[in-house]
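Open question from group meeting: does this chain pack into something compact, or does most of it stay loose? Before anyone orders reagents, we agreed to write out a predicted structure and look at it together. Recording both the input and the output here so the notebook holds the full record.
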Amino acid sequence: MYKEILDEIFHAYPMYHKIGSAAYKEGLENIEALLNIVGNPERKLKAIHIAGTNGKGSVAHLMASYCQEQHLKTGLFTSPHLVDFRERIRIDGEMIPEDFILDFFKKYKSEFDKLEPSFFEMTTALAFYYFVEQKVDIAVIEVGLGGRLDCTNVLRPLLSIITNITLEHTQMLGDTIAKIAFEKAGIIKQDTPVVIGEFHPESFPVFTDIANQKNAPLFLAADNYTISGELYDCNIIDVFGNVKYEHVNMPLSGEYQRKNLATFLQATDVLHQLMPSDKDVTVAAIEHVISNTGFQGRWQVLRRQPLTICDVGHNVGGLSITMKQLAEIPCRQLRMVFGMVSDKDIEHIIPLLPKEALFYVCQANIERAIPAADLAAMLSQHGLSCKICGNVLDAFQTAEADASPEDIIFVGGSCFVVGNLLENL
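Structure tokens returned:
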């Protein structure tokens, strides 16, 4: 029964990950009407609200782990999911039960349908309702897209976090860093502290101006924390800043986690005023983030020989860092299981890709995925060597069959490529 209901949800409501911008509903009127139907749970939630182009998922999981280590019953709402829809909605790391989803839609679907909600609006209403019904102490909420008009922006959070800004979703959010920053800054609330993860000369003035207008104390993580040590695999790091942390076992790999960790630590400094804790809680939150929250898909090592890594980075900002880190790992041959969706900035992404790699080009199992033959043609035009492989599993198995133990296999280009692989491993 659950599978039938889930299929109906996927087909009945416009999904951004399937059809792109046509599923994006601008404005908060619809989500406000949905939440009114289910008793306005957004008014009862204590929340931490997180926006940003890259890193918001990592920071959300770290913040949830921190709250769990404080022995708070913690809701976590993220998107998209990689394998199971229920990944999006968790309490203390446990996914929402199938029965709860069934009961929710039996109770409210007929009223929802009158409003013709998007998939994300419907999912947001489900998450907020679930967290209130289960009496969470705090909820960590990741923005779906943008900020100002995102349907999660009905919250009045304890803390807002904006990780960073790069050009993405320009057709909806604007074609400059400043315009996108304005949309992200929509989550800054009156008299509510906001943490900015990274300084950018075009975005930071936007954030400071809006924070000043709203009397929102603003904190820049990049000013206050630096992380030393390698962030490749099995990392022992030292952190220097407002508080010093030594010999921390950081389970999240990837150079980009350096900035995410600084953002997280700055956020815990701010939260310390509301929920005091000691250093041990923060260290435990970092070291236990995977077991506490079920985090996956970010520079995740799947095999050791050949070294096999997957990563969900899919825009210029994310892929530029990921490709730089790949280039620093010695190997005999880099093999890339690679697919993309059609609304990404392909023109600026392709130059970031390693010329020496062999590309096993695939098509994720969603409507927006670029057909493998079309993507291979684009890559080949830039001098990249390609094999057209069809679906993700075919591409991965072909790369494995071709690889020697000294090679590296990288799986990425889209969170849906990573999700399709994890689903089949």
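Observations to bring back to the group:
Confidence is low (pLDDT under 50) at residues 16-23.
The first strand starts at residue 47 and ends at 51.
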